Amino acid sequence: MVEHSFYLEVNREAILHNINVLRKWKRKDIIPVIKANAYGHGMLEMAKTCVQAGVTQVAVARYQEAKKILEDSYFQSLSKECSFQILIFESIGDFSLLDDFPRMDISINSLEELEKALEYHISPKKMQVKIDFSFGRNGIQEKDLPFFIKKVKEENLTFKGIFSHLFSCSYEDGLLCIKKFSSLVQEMGKERFDRIHLQNSAASYNYDCDIVTDIRVGMLTYGLQEPGYFHEELQRAFCLKGKIDSIRCVENMKYLAYEGKEDVGMKSAKWAAKIKIGYADGFGKENENGSCIIQRKEYRIAEVTMDNTFLEVDERVKVGDEVLLFYNPTKTKQETGKEIHEHLTGLTNRLPRKWIGEIK
């Protein structure tokens, strides 16, 4: 790796540990959500880790994400006996895109989409039906459910799955969503669906749902705690780190990088350190006046440029010292106004991901 570069280190063992914790906690199987480059952690390695953990279903947002995974040599070489599948949340429109990828499952987000998929001879065992209980997202709307139920019963359709979206809404609204979803599945017959899932990470804290077979978790899989909640057994899998690239005495300088010293709060500062990460890597200017850790001590982030970031430091800091960013997700939210998953999903591909731990 280039000297003093920054990278996102990901602990594979922490991911495997979290998957086991979630299974035991909810007494359900899990569907890890690995969209948005696995919440910034690295989608391909995350998908491989899920296979290692015995996960049989993961979920992504878009067709291109699933395609990128399945075109990788690791997945090309999986035996047919391996039942690993990828659910795509967003409608793909062109069903011919599925012809070369038998490991893709699609979401059915409307009655029209169901009709078109059946006309294209997509097996219902490749479909997971999404229901929208007034959250304004994807899915068959409540007003269309009588027509959906009638069609399913008349044609005796059985599907790969059925799901809805239950997140951190009000507790009462969540209970109502569970009641509606459970009633729908019971009316149609639970045996029509191989997989039934409702809760995301936030809802997993608030609710249990007897009728589901799986929980669909994104943040918790990576050990990212939901705001206002905490599971003591989950392990954070990422660490964003690098090293001090250079240090300058700025005591007699008027400017630092592209700004006046006074404008970046460095008017009386003596030392500035440069690190090789900037907003082109997804480390945005909202991090200015935030903090980092060097030698177990907090230092202020003074200025973020396209390629570099400048820190206000003291005489103890040396070139080559390790720097930790986003070391405390709660503090990161307080300093930047953004949740940690918003930061991580914004990290660009220019920033390397380094997974620790081999695929077994």
From TrEMBL:
GO terms for cellular component: cytosol. Substrate binds at residues 137, 306. Residues 237-356 form the Alanine racemase C-terminal domain. InterPro entries: Ala_racemase, Ala_racemase/Decarboxylase_C, Ala_racemase_C, Ala_racemase_N, Ala_racemase_pyridoxalP-BS, PLP-binding_barrel. It holds the Pfam family Ala_racemase_C. Keywords: Isomerase, Pyridoxal phosphate. The modification N6-(pyridoxal phosphate)lysine is found at residue 35. Its cofactor is pyridoxal 5'-phosphate. PROSITE patterns: ALANINE_RACEMASE. One of its GO terms (molecular function) is pyridoxal phosphate binding. Signal peptide: none annotated. GO terms for biological process: D-alanine biosynthetic process. The keyword Acyltransferase does not apply. Gene3D superfamilies: Alanine racemase, Lyase, Ornithine Decarboxylase, Chain A, domain 1. This is Putative alanine racemase. It comes from Fusobacterium equinum.
